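= Tokenised fold =
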Amino acid sequence: MVTASAGITPFGFAFDRRNRIFVSEANQSTLSSYRFNGATPMVISAAVPTEQAAACWAAVTPNGRYAYTGNAGTSSVSLFAIDRLGRATLVAAAAASTGSNGGAGDIALAAHGRTLSILAPRTPAIFSFEVAADGTLTPTASVTGLPAGSVGLAAN
């Protein structure tokens, strides 16, 4: 089954614990949310702007209250609040950054939901942030000196 995306150029996605899907859309740098009616995804929030550039990656906290997009074009992470119905609302356009022209090649949340990591492919480095109860991000650590061309990121 093929369903048209609410935004242009769907790129990354993440599911929450209620089996809703949050999709980053790179072209206009937006985030959309969907619920499922059987096998058919139904739009909840359509193409909510990040106010950044190239939202390529998505992550959702384990409690389903917050979503993030990794914005490759502005080397930033946007923070969205998610309500009980799955509606996404932009909280912070640039909740975190990998620095000037670092990029945001991928993002990953640890299973406990208290650490968000970002691959900055143009640095190349990995930046980690503490996730507060309100979804805000505080820098905690970074690892630099990764091999050029490093891609992908996973968290445990």
Observations:
- The domain at 10-144 is CATH 2.130.10.10 (Methylamine Dehydrogenase; Chain H).
